[in-house]
Here is the input.
Amino acid sequence: MDAASLALTFLYYGAALVLALGLALRIRRYAAVPAPLKIPTTPAPTNRTGVVLRMIRELTLFESLFKSNKWIWLFGWMFHFGLLLVLLRHLRYFTDPVWGWVAFLQPYGKYASLMMVLGLLGLWFRRVMVDRVRYISALSDHLMLALLIAIGVTGIAMSFAVGTDVVAVKAFFLGLMWFDWQPLPSDPLLYVHLVLVALLMLIFPFSKLLHAPGVFFSPTRNQADNPREHRHVSAWALKLEKGNG
Amino acid sequence: MAEQPAFDVPELKPYPVIPKLVEDAMAHSQPFVAKPNFQGPLGFPGELVDDWQDVAVKKMGELTDRYRSLQVFLDSCVKCGACTDKCHYYLGTTDPKNMPVARQDLFRKVYRRHYTFAGKYLPWLVGAEDLTEEVLDDWYKYFHQCSQCRRCSVYCPYGIDTAEISMAAREVMDSIGKGQKYCNEIIGKVHTIGNNLGLPEPALVDTLEGLAEEIEEDTGVAVQFPLDQKGADILLVTPSADFFAEPHVDGLIGYAKVLHEAGLSWTLSSHASEAANFGMFIGSYENMRKVALRIREAALDLGVKRIVFGECGHAWRVAYSFLNTLAGPFDFLDPNYPIPQHICEVTHGLIQEGKLRLDKSQNDDMVLTYHDSCNVARASRMGDVPGGQFTIPRDVIRASCNHFYDMPADTVREATYCCGGGGGLLTDDLIELRVKGALPRMEALKQVVDDHGVTHMAAICAICKSQFAKVLTYYGFQMDQIVSVHQLVSNAIILTGSEQEKEAELSEAA
Here is the structure.
């Protein structure tokens, strides 16, 4: 196997490990830290079913963001749902035979990449042009958008313009999964695409991308509004009560 | 206007405009620092400790271990900008550090520096910073320009609530000896005297007797204001401003008339003569719990069956959302009633049951609108269904008057604007902030004044009432244009055996 393929093989094992372990530790932390007080943003659902529905609306429709700002909502939704379709489409590189519904999504996933990049460009435009958003942006906020756009653009170039040997790419990733390592086609554009994706995986657990697991743990969204009906006390508060109550 | 302010009062625009940011526009605004004698009793160091940086950073870690909200919120913000135009203090002051995300970032950048990989090794990349003297100054200024109203949390795609960050920042500052005078002095008074205003029991007795006389003069009915009456069914806990401030006291008169007319047995408590819980403002669970326990003690001591809260916004948040947690379980109370219950729920229920006679025409000299108090709207509920906190007070108002118009939809209900004085900022050393923070509400009020001839705005929060009574004049309104919801009930209610009842019967007969 050539050096580039070997390097990418190790890079992907490393990136996958960091992503999985990093996220698992972070999620464990979010689950472990108690929420001692009932703080749902009201009006809030009064039972679990209602909370699940509220979370589903937040996750699929970005309900709160829609209330806030239609432009951020539009660009954000374009990016996230474009990304979702693109990711699902990429399952074809990890499954053999390709699942039927993945094959069905293939054309939609291809065009979703355009929607994704347009959404990202919209978000970046706002970040640069709107004085309030520019003020709150750190260098990392700009670079994150640049990274995602670069991943999208290199992917789009391979899908729509120059192409790459997708059969070999698939062999490479199946090889990673089954520890039967295969070489990658020597294609600079593909190298760039894959290195950037690995970089994104490495950054994920240490960056604001933690909003992805974070949203599930947000007490203002995931708590039911029932404090009068059910007494809610955290472990440390209970200890406090025993101590001097 | 009574006095010429030392700052420019914002102009009321015909429609809301998101202002261009002006850096450091409010960098001069900060409240008085608490003196050592106010800090000590609350368990805080008297003045800035020597190794304050280390103590503060360690405290941050303790708080992220204690509060999931804080931990998740500090990690999750993506700087999307959804909240940037949602804070009344930003809209009123144009200072970018009053944008919710920028306010959070004052805290987040220190968290990142000490508790995240990126902030430790690449601070320049992610905007992480050490806790320097300048940063602490910014904390003290701008975490006292947040009224913890939660409006930003409605619009955040992750529900990030700046109130949680403000509370944490204030708790960290208290822990290093930089507390705020207004809040900490008041919490001290609650513990030593029983209420925020430091009103001692004899003064309370006097005041209540005066109110009873006033009602008897007006109506001919002897409505009582029982204090510390053992064996009463209901303990009424109300903000101490209700005992003498205008228009609060007219609300208290309203509660008394309602409870009297419904034939309910009730009492106030001198031990818990305060509904508000400023422990929440400073983010201190321990202080909040201590303040809340007074109410439990009073309820047990008086042997009541129910607890009812008067008109008070943050108090209702602590009562509704936290009381069961902090001072429960309340298994000694009557489970057939919500524990605790809001006075609006009580009155609303009685109206539904037809137990109150209300003559709406008694309020015909007013055209009303209603200001949803932030913590009632976004941090609590009334009744059985979500949103009852919006409909129940409005139903009570509509049942008491003929003319009611809501302010624009994006300024009421869950989108309501804070009055500008909540969250421990209702102090004269922050008057410029309070006036400017009221701008969005004043613009909304102006709109219904112009469109519908609204003359008065009703509210159910002691802070809102005090704040509006003060700031309305800066915008060309009159201070008496703010009224209590139960003041309207008080005007309209026809007490059995009263002069008003006789008049009504006479006019009916004629």
